[in-house]
Design a protein that fits this description.
about 0% helix; mainly beta
């Protein structure tokens, strides 16, 4: 595969940087500079062109220490609203995972619309594969009251990372159909859309 992918950032449609700090100078940081940007480009796949035109793209970035760290994360957009959720599970010698909150944020065309740290992420496995089949996410605060149900359509599995990306766990990148309902700021939300998610599974 060769080619170019171009994502145009929209001012305000970003999640500001955040950091989690732990013992011994441990730190992990995360930012979303492009929650929902115009996506264009052209790829050559085995000699056949794939044109990306008027799509929507997402771009995030993380830094710090990620060895033996796992997480649950997902993002979806619909209309002029974008949603991102997540929770980090640090190494036991860096921080107590039970004390680290999750997050769920809604971003509109002018910036953040609502944000919650009282977040539940529940994953139900497919008995045949052991991979998540349904993921339920809820987030509640004064500015946000959202329930998401993700139906997983496809999983790409990176086998245990040798000390990186969760250590002795498999890293799963998921394509999912999101059913999103609730309230973001003063807006009622009720839609179905395709999105992405990530999680881990032990062996």
């Amino acid at each position: 595969v060769t080619g170019d992918i171009i994502i145009e950032a929209s001012p305000g449609r970003a999640l500001p940087p955040l950091e989690i700090r732990g013992a011994g100078g441990w730190v992990s940081g995360y930012v979303v500079p492009v929650m929902s940007g115009r996506l264009t480009g052209r790829l050559m796949v085995n000699g056949s062109p794939v044109v990306l035109d008027e799509g929507v793209g997402y771009h995030d970035h993380n830094w710090g220490f990620w060895k033996d760290v796992s997480w649950r994360w997902g993002q979806v957009h619909h209309g002029n609203l974008s949603f991102v959720y997540g929770r980090i599970h640090p190494p036991a010698d860096a921080a107590d995972a039970e004390r680290i909150p999750g997050f769920l944020a809604a971003i509109g065309p002018d910036g953040p619309v609502g944000y919650a740290t009282t977040v539940s992420i529940e994953e139900s496995n497919d008995p045949a594969t052991g991979h998540p089949r349904i993921i339920k996410v809820t987030g509640r605060s004064s500015s946000l009251d959202i329930a998401m149900e993700l139906t997983v359509d496809e999983a790409i599995v990176t086998r245990r990372g040798g000390g990186l990306f969760g250590g002795e766990q498999d890293f799963l990148q998921l394509r999912a159909r999101y059913r999103v309902r609730g309230r973001a700021g003063e807006r009622s939300v009720d839609f179905t859309a395709s999105g992405a998610a990530e999680t881990f599974r032990g062996q």
